[in-house]
Amino acid sequence: MFIGLFCQILITACQKDNFNSSVLAVKMENLHISSAFDWKTSRVVGFSITNLTPGVVRISSADGSKLFSKGYFSGTPSTYQVSLSLPTTVKAVQINDELVTIPSGNFLNYAMLSFKSLAISNYSMFFSGTNTTIKALSTASTVFTNQVSMEAWVKLNAFQTAKIVEKGDWNGFGLGVDLYKGFQASAYLKTAQSLVINWGGNQPKLNQWYHLAMTFDGSLLCLYVDGVLRNSVTFSSILWANTYAISIGSDSGNQKFFKGWIDEVSVWNVPLTNQFITDNMNKTLGGNETGLYAYWQFNEGSGATVYDKTAHHYDGTVANATWNTDTSFGADADGDGVIDNYDDYPNDPTRAFNNYFPSEGPASLAFEDLWPSKGDYDFNDLVIDYQFKTVTNSRNKVSEVKAKFIIRAAGAGFENGFGFQLPGTIPDADITVTGSSIKHNVVKLNSNGTEAGQDKTTIIVFDDVFDLMANPGIGVGVNTTPGAPYITPDTLNITMTFKPDTYSTLDIGLEKFNPFIIIDKNRGREVHLPDYSPTSLADLTLLGTGDDNSNVASSRYYKTQNNLPWAINISSSFSYTNETEQIVNGYRYFASWAQSGGTTKTDWYLDLSGYRNTGSLYKKP
Q: What is the CA 480 to chain-centroid distance, rounded?
């Protein structure tokens, strides 16, 4: 009985958290790491995008739920370029709704297919009333019989009898206008019955925008103007099946040409509700709404093609109609060329877009501070979460960068400082830095807030972590010893302001920033991420001493002989280990990831089932 009970307890213990204890039966010192491994959980991807029209360029996750970047393409030069730091788990992205796989070489040279830029210089189409039309959907597959809806914004330049959006000729259906009765919706039924309903308002006002919608559900034809149901008629039949093209600005027989402006045309294979029409008439559609069959925004600005924003790609061919900046909606309150729908600062012409790095939320930096000697590999001597917000204008130039640093733990006795270096040099006159916590005679700052004596732009965030988070009186450091009082993390906000209209995000290069700690107020003793170079003020005589195996000639820095680091950068907020607990004890697949050279278990740090040994991770008391 005792043996059976013992075996049951042993089995239960082995099954705890659904993991095999052999996964953790390894120490950092025994890992076999390739000298080429960079220890990164993210990668810098360069984008070179062509075949765009002037406008907004959005790069997002493959499912469109997370925005990685938003910027402006002016048309000159002909290529839109940006460099982003993305988690290594990201294998594909959407560029303005086109799904694109990221190549292994981390540089994407891509020509857009049908989806061009999003609206920035918003346009409508102007139809002169003489041989001006747009034709689309001219395939036999585009037959509507039971259900259909059409929407459009229109502005008349003259009183007239004309078609606004029509599928078919006399035997079709769509939206139009009568010389005397004004707006109307029409449908020709399979029973050879022609239905026409008018809005009841006689002639509409000239040079005023109206939103029109017609819906057909097999028994009811409705006409809405500016979201209000103006007329309807009941019947018992389906539509006459015609395979004509969709015509915008005329009927399919190239007659009844419209004179005026048309914008935001959509065709649906469902009958829209009144509520949906009113909720969405003043918004741009995403292109993937349920039942949306085709959607033309007319924001190309030039050329002979209008692009369907849905995945159907029912692009239209323009005949004599012209683009016009008089639009149905999409106000630009600050006049910077970015319509308010896409402008993060609609009332500030010097700002237009916010971009975040990392884009999905704060990332973590975790340091060991005994360099050049090896540490205990708990990577909690200093743990800092960070995120940068870059503000650019409509010319894609950086106005300012706001950086947030959250000091979460300091599991050490040393009075460590922290800073970072940009990959290039911004002249002192072109950048101003505020927000640093400098209280000791450790670093010297220029009048603009950057560190003096550096060959690259360097920002010191703080010079002593214990000025910001004091040891509670027991335990090692702050927030690493179980049972010791918890200290609320401190946040520092650094603002970098740049000379207006001068620097692009590529010029500044935040995605390649070089973070480091200053050990125990000794300015020359720096610790950087593996293979990141020391700054101009580092004591280079320490390289290659102790357990450090740096080699300046081969650009090898801050690695031991068996390629272990003193710092890691995790692309999301990191749950660090307790004091003296090696990171391999807290993360079951850290060793697998490291020994594979980063090719397997790239998501080792995520809180997924079976990934963590929670007993080794620090918990807030």
A: 34
pTM of the model: 0.73
For 509-538, b/e burial (b = at least 16 CB within 10 A) is bbbebbbbbbbebebebbbbbbbbbbbebb
CATH code assigned at 78: 2.60.40
Q: How far apart are CA 384 and CA 406, in angstroms?
A: 5
**Closest by CA position to 201, among listed 158, 157, 231:** 231
300, 324, 348 - which closes a domain? 324
- Backbone φ and ψ for 148, nearest 5 degrees, come out as -165, 150
499 forms beta bridges with none
3-state secondary structure of 225: strand
Per the structure, how many domains does the chain have? 3
Is residue 356 included in any domain, yes or no? no
Range of the domain at 94: 43-111
CA 165 remoteness from chain centre: 35
Q: Which of 68, 572, 118, 121 is nearest to 354 (CA)?
A: 68
- By CB neighbour count within 10 A (0-12 exposed, 13-18 middle, 19+ buried), where does 309 fall? buried
Q: How far apart are CA 129 and CA 264, in angstroms?
A: 19
Output the domain CATH number for residue 282: 2.60.120.200
Chain Cα centroid distance, residue 19: 35
Query: 174 and 67 in one domain?
Result: no
Asked if residue 484 and residue 407 are part of one domain, the reply reads yes
- ∠ CA 426-432-433, rounded to 5°: 105
What pLDDT, in 10s, does the model give residues 470-528? 999 998 999 999 999 999 999 999 999 999 999 999 999 999 999 999 999 999 999 99
In a domain, 611, yes or no: no
Please indicate, yes or no, whether residues 139 and 97 belong to a single structural domain of this protein.
no
Tokens coding 313: 């790609």
